[in-house]
Task: inverse folding
C-alpha cells in the first residue's frame, strides 16, 4: 500500500531542493578577444561532422541533429570578432567549392573544420537517483520530472588553415571536447520504467543529441577559436609565415598574328616563344596555370585585355611575391621616340598600343618583386616596326621608366642592335634561351620563386655570346635586378665587346 501523497510531496520538495531539476547547457557567446583581430580575411568551409562507429548503432541521424550549417555559422560567430579581421561563411557544398569561392573573393585564408568521432553517452545516475526511486514508489508521477540521468556528447574537433594563394596547409590543430547535462525523464523521452534504467531507443538518443547540440557547437567553436588565437596567431606573426605564403605570379603575352596583316605581317615564333615561357613557369616553377598565370596569345592579346590582366595582378600580389610579365611581339616608337608595345588590334591609325611608361606605371603599383621580360625591339631591326621618333642616344633610356618604378626589366636587345631569330629552333635567340632557362629551372629559389638576378645574368650571358658566335651583335639590356646583376651584366658586355 502506498504512503500518503503528502509524504511523496515532501520528498519531492526535498529532491527538487537538492538539485533535481534538469540542467542542460545551451549555446554561449564568444568571449571578448584579448588581442586585436589579425588583419586577414578568412572564409570558413562547410564544417564536416562524422559520428563515431558506435554512434551509428544507435540508428538515428546524428549529422542532421547537429546540423552542419548551424555548426558552420557558430564557428563564424566565434572566429570573426576575435581572430580574423573579416570572416565569410562559404556557400559552397564542400571544401573544394569553398576554396574556389575564397579565391574569387580574394580572401587570404580558408579555415577547414571537421568534428569527428561524435558520440552521445549515458554516464549514469546522479546522487538523487535512490531518493527518486523511493519517490516513484510513494507517488510515482513526480519522479519522472526529477533529473537523475547524466548524459554527455563527446567529439574531436580538427581545424586547418589553408593559404588561398598557394593552397598550402599553413596550420592545423586537434582538440578533444565534450558537453554534459543532467536529464529528467521527459528531457530525453518518457518511458514508464525509465527512472530505473533508460532503454534509450533511437528517438531517445536523438532527443539527447538535440538537447546537447547547441552547447556542443559552442564548445567546438570555442576550442577552435582558442587554438587560432594562440598557436595560429604565434605562427601568423612570425617572419616565416610570409616566406611560406610567397608565390610566383605570371602574365605571358605573345602576338604572332595581328589584326592588320598589311601593316603588321605575321611575326614568326612570337606566340610559340610565349608558350615556352608558360610551359617553364608551370612545369618547373610550379605556377598554378589557372589561378596564378594569365596567358594572352594572338587575338586575345589586346590592349584592354592586357590592362585588365595587370589590374588582376595588382589585386592578387602580396609583398614578397614574385611577379613575372613577359611580352613577345612587335614594338615601335611613338613620335617622341619613346618605346611602345603593339598589341593584337594595332593598326596604322595608332590603336592597340601600350607605352613602356604606361606598363611601368601599372607594374610599379603591384606589391611584390616584379620582373618584366620584353622579347621585342623598337627600331625596325627584328620584332619591331619603324616608328615616328628616333632611338635615344643612351640605350638605357628605353628601360628607364621601369627603373624609376622599382621594377626589374630585361629587354631582348638594345637600341641599335638587331633581334636575332633562329628558324632552326623556331624561336628568337632571346626566346630560345628564355624558354630554356625556365625549363631548366634557372633561378629557381625556395617555394618555386624565380630569381630575377639569376635569370637576367643567364640571358645576358648566353644571348650575347651566341649572337657573337653567329657574327651578330645582340646584347640584352637589364635594369633593376636584385643584388647588383646590372653591374654583372655591364661588366660581361664590356668583356665581350
Result:
Amino acid at each position: 500500500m502506498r504512503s500518503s501523497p503528502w509524504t511523496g510531496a515532501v520528498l519531492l520538495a526535498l529532491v527538487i531542493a537538492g538539485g533535481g531539476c534538469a540542467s542542460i547547457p545551451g549555446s554561449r557567446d564568444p568571449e571578448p578577444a584579448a588581442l586585436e583581430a589579425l588583419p586577414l580575411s578568412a572564409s570558413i568551409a562547410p564544417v564536416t561532422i562524422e559520428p563515431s562507429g558506435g554512434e551509428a548503432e544507435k540508428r538515428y541521424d546524428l549529422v542532421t541533429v547537429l546540423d552542419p550549417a548551424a555548426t558552420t555559422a557558430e564557428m563564424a560567430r566565434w572566429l570573426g570578432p576575435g581572430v580574423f579581421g573579416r570572416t565569410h561563411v562559404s556557400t559552397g557544398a564542400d571544401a573544394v567549392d569553398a576554396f574556389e569561392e575564397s579565391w574569387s573573393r580574394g580572401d587570404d585564408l580558408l579555415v577547414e573544420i571537421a568534428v569527428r568521432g561524435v558520440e552521445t553517452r549515458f554516464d549514469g545516475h546522479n546522487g538523487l537517483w535512490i531518493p527518486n526511486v523511493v519517490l516513484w514508489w510513494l507517488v510515482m508521477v513526480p519522479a519522472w520530472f526529477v533529473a537523475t540521468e547524466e548524459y554527455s556528447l563527446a567529439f574531436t574537433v580538427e581545424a586547418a588553415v589553408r593559404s588561398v594563394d598557394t593552397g598550402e596547409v599553413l596550420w592545423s590543430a586537434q582538440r578533444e571536447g565534450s558537453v554534459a547535462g543532467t536529464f529528467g525523464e521527459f528531457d530525453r523521452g518518457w518511458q514508464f520504467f525509465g527512472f530505473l534504467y533508460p532503454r534509450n531507443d533511437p528517438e531517445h538518443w536523438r532527443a539527447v543529441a538535440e538537447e546537447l547540440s547547441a552547447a556542443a557547437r559552442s564548445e567546438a567553436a570555442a576550442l577552435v577559436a582558442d587554438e587560432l588565437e594562440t598557436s595560429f596567431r604565434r605562427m601568423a606573426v612570425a617572419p616565416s609565415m610570409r616566406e611560406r605564403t610567397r608565390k610566383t605570379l605570371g602574365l605571358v603575352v605573345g602576338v604572332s598574328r595581328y589584326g592588320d596583316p598589311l601593316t603588321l605581317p605575321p611575326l614568326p615564333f612570337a606566340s610559340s616563344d610565349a608558350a615556352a615561357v608558360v610551359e617553364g613557369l608551370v612545369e618547373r616553377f610550379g605556377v598554378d596555370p589557372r589561378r596564378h598565370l594569365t596567358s594572352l596569345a594572338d587575338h586575345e592579346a589586346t590592349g584592354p585585355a592586357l590592362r585588365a590582366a595587370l589590374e588582376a595582378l595588382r589585386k592578387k600580389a602580396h609583398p614578397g611575391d614574385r611577379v613575372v610579365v613577359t611580352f613577345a611581339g612587335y614594338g615601335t616608337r611613338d613620335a617622341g621616340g619613346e618605346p611602345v608595345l603593339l598589341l593584337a588590334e594595332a593598326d596604322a591609325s595608332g590603336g592597340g598600343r601600350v607605352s613602356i611608361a604606361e606598363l611601368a606605371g601599372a607594374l610599379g603599383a603591384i606589391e611584390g618583386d616584379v620582373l618584366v621580360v620584353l622579347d621585342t625591339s623598337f627600331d625596325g631591326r627584328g620584332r619591331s616596326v619603324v616608328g615616328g621618333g628616333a632611338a635615344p642616344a643612351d640605350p638605357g633610356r628605353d628601360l628607364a621608366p621601369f627603373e624609376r618604378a622599382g621594377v626589374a626589366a630585361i629587354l631582348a636587345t638594345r637600341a641599335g642592335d638587331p633581334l636575332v631569330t633562329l628558324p632552326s629552333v623556331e624561336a628568337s635567340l632571346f626566346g630560345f634561351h628564355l624558354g630554356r632557362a625556365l625549363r631548366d629551372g634557372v633561378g629557381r629559389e625556395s617555394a618555386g620563386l624565380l630569381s630575377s638576378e639569376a635569370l637576367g645574368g643567364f640571358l645576358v650571358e648566353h644571348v650575347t655570346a651566341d649572337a657573337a658566335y653567329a657574327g651578330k651583335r645582340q646584347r640584352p639590356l637589364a635594369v633593376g635586378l636584385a643584388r647588383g646583376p646590372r653591374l654583372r651584366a655591364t661588366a660581361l658586355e664590356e668583356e665581350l665587346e
Notes: Residues 202-236 form the longest helix (35 residues). Residues 483-497 have pLDDT under 50 and may be disordered.
